[in-house]
């Protein structure tokens, strides 16, 4: 009995020692000691700062690192990327799966209050929120030519970031590494994973312990994503049987790309029917007051991501989330041609960005998360204002369909979870379901419901080579925001290598 007690005591001391090592090894200058709006002790260690990915250009990527509230020395490291292109990953931190829930202030001029989030992904993992590419969020470059970027450059920079980040935090190098993101991160994640694998082949050091990736409502392939909208709208009861059948007939079942005049007419009819919906969650309201309507028509349209599905006389309202695809239906942009975004304001007709914008533009918050030092470089402001989604970058989608990357990665044994909120009209689950099926892998876990607390939370289908497709019932485009409890459940199951 004495020997057993001694062993238990030794193991406890070892765990405490590992925790102390983790705390002491990380760069103390990056430690976040307090956050305005939160009263109390942070639930785990937080770090924030910059990693230089190009010394010559002074290109710097900003990160916010949340140490796991569980077992930091063993829990996975997850790099989180929001989409756009052009949206800050603080979207995930503030609105989705960060350590806090943000309460909108009742008094004008005061900061939001922060409350602990019981479904934070930091409950079960270490997580890095990265603003990428340069020009997004707090990331910047001293050479403004860097704001003209694309898939390949973004992936290479993110890979460089990881290599340099692990030099700053070498104690986390043995931890399993996963990539995660949503919407246009459906491009960011597989292209970054591809760069990591290329780094292995080239003998790049340090060697990352990369295990897999998960993507929510992710842009993947223009034809699969574009052709998914009309069947989704019909299945959800948003367009009539007659409109669906007429569109299907005139377009020969193809709703994306070049079309004859009759097909264009039917696509315009579908757009007209759907135009007042909130495309990021068809169950959510979209506000159409006179002030918002004027704002919509004069200043806003949905940003063009990697293709353009046509135009109408009245642009759709913009949403503050990661813009996975252009709306509405229509013609694609030729490969590699993505127009510069229009200027975006902090407010949007469909949703409210006030909480994130107010908090992250507070001088006290900026000082707390170590962005103040970047305000003045050679007497010039470089990050004068944080915006959830920026119009400052010109992005070139230069890597085409992501299916080839998914095949490469899964065939080499990397785990992949493709998850979709089933009420998202922006990147409908029907497209993600179709392209995962098109991979040609054998089904090893046939379509079935998955449960949380005895209730159906969605549906899932497992394929060979560790590829899984999952829906989240009743969720919109940003799944952890709509279904936080269910999201933490499937997130932990995936990281643990367990089926739903």
The gist of it:
With about 500 residues, the protein is of the alpha/beta class.
Features:
signal, 12-stranded mixed β-sheet, AB_hydrolase_fold, acyltransferase activity, transferring groups other than amino-acyl groups, 500 residues, two-stranded antiparallel sheet, protease
Write the layout of secondary structure elements.
Blueprint lengths: L1 H24 L5 E2 L13 E9 L4 E8 L10 E5 L8 H7 L3 E4 L9 E4 L9 E5 L9 E2 L6 E3 H18 L8 E6 L2 H18 L7 E7 L5 H5 L2 H7 L5 H10 L10 H14 L15 H10 L54 H7 L2 H6 L7 E2 L2 E2 L12 E3 L6 H9 L3 E7 L7 H10 L4 E10 L2 E9 L3 E6 L6 H4 L1 H12 L5
Helix pairs in contact: 3-4, 4-12, 7-8
Function: Probable carboxypeptidase.
Family: Belongs to the peptidase S10 family.
GO biological process, one term: proteolysis
């Amino acid at each position: 009995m004495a020997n057993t007690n001694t062993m238990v005591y030794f193991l406890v001391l070892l765990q405490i020692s590992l925790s102390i090592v983790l705390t002491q090894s990380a760069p103390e200058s990056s430690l976040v000691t307090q956050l305005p709006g939160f009263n109390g002790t942070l639930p785990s260690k937080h770090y924030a700062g910059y990693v230089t990915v190009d010394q010559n250009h002074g290109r710097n990527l900003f990160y916010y690192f949340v140490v796991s509230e569980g077992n930091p020395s063993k829990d996975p490291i997850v790099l989180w990327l929001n989409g756009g292109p052009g949206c800050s990953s603080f979207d995930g931190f503030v609105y989705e799966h960060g350590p806090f829930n943000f309460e909108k202030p009742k008094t004008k001029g005061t900061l939001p209050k922060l409350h602990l989030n019981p479904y934070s992904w930091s409950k079960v993992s270490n997580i890095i929120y990265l603003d990428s590419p340069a020009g997004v969020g707090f990331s910047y470059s001293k050479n403004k030519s860097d704001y003209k970027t694309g898939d390949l450059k973004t992936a290479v920079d993110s890979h460089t970031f990881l290599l340099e980040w692990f030099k700053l935090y070498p104690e986390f190098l043995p931890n399993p590494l996963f990539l995660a993101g949503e919407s246009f991160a459906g491009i960011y994640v597989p292209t970054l994973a591809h760069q990591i694998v290329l780094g292995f082949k080239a003998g790049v050091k340090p060697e990352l312990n990369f295990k897999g990736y998960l993507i929510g409502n992710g842009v993947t392939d223009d034809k699969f994503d574009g052709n998914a909208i009309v069947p989704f709208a019909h299945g959800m009861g948003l367009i009539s049987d007659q409109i669906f059948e007429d569109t299907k007939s005139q377009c020969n079942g193809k709703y994306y790309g070049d079309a004859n005049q009759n097909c264009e007419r039917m696509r315009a009819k579908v757009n007209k029917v759907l135009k007042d919906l909130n495309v990021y969650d068809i169950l959510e309201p979209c506000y159409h007051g006179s002030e918002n309507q004027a704002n919509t028509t004069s200043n806003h349209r949905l940003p063009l991501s990697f293709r353009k599905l046509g135009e109408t006389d009245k642009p759709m309202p913009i949403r503050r989330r990661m813009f996975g695809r252009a709306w509405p239906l229509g013609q694609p942009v030729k490969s590699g041609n993505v127009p510069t975004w229009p200027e975006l304001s902090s407010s949007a007709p469909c949703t409210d960005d006030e909480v994130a914008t107010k908090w992250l533009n507070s001088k006290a918050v900026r000082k707390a998360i170590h962005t103040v030092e970047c305000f003045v470089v050679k007497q010039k402001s470089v990050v004068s204002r944080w915006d959830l989604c920026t119009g400052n970058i010109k992005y070139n989608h230069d890597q085409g369909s992501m299916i080839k990357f998914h095949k490469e990665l899964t065939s080499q044994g990397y785990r992949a979870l493709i998850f979709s909120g089933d009420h998202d009209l922006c990147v409908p689950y029907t497209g993600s379901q179709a392209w995962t099926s098109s991979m040609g892998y054998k089904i090893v876990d046939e379509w079935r419901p998955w449960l949380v607390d005895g209730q159906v939370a969605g549906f899932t289908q497992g394929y060979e080579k560790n590829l899984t497709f999952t829906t989240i019932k009743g969720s919109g485009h940003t799944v952890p925001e709509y279904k936080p409890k269910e999201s933490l459940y499937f997130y932990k199951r995936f990281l643990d290598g367990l089926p739903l």
